[in-house]
Specification:
It contains six helices and no strands. By secondary structure, the chain is an all-alpha fold. It starts with a helix and ends with a helix.
Length: about 120
């Protein structure tokens, strides 16, 4: 019973992974996936560079005439990079202010530093 469920689950996962990997072989799908990846900065940067780079000889022969960079992907990637940087800066400011607030609260209720830190 349980083995059958795990076997079906494993088969379904393998099918979905193969389907996703086939769709990511398309350059446009890969660029859009990288450009729209939120919070992390590296995937939009990769999408930006991949979109701006010139195709090599094999790609140029396969795709015909030289293509221009997809302006919409570049705009989305740049916006996502800016928003990600703003998000991480906000998280950093929030953590620092929370740390200071917790320190002030602990100090106000009389909790002092551990003895080993007092000498520093």
């Amino acid at each position: 019973m349980v083995e059958g469920i795990f076997r079906r689950l494993k088969t379904e996962i393998r099918y979905q992974v193969n389907r996703i990997s086939e769709s990511l072989k398309d350059r446009q799908t890969l660029l859009w996936t990288l450009a729209l990846c939120p919070v992390v900065i590296l995937p939009p940067i990769l999408a930006l560079f991949m979109s701006l780079r010139s195709p090599n000889a094999a790609e140029a022969a396969a795709h015909g005439p030289a293509r221009s960079p997809d302006v919409l992907i570049v705009m989305v990637a740049v916006c996502n990079i800016i928003l990600s940087i703003m998000f991480w800066r906000w998280i950093g400011d929030t953590v620092v202010s929370m740390g200071l607030s917790i320190g002030l609260i602990l100090k106000s209720i009389g909790v002092s530093h551990p003895g080993s830190l007092r000498s520093i």
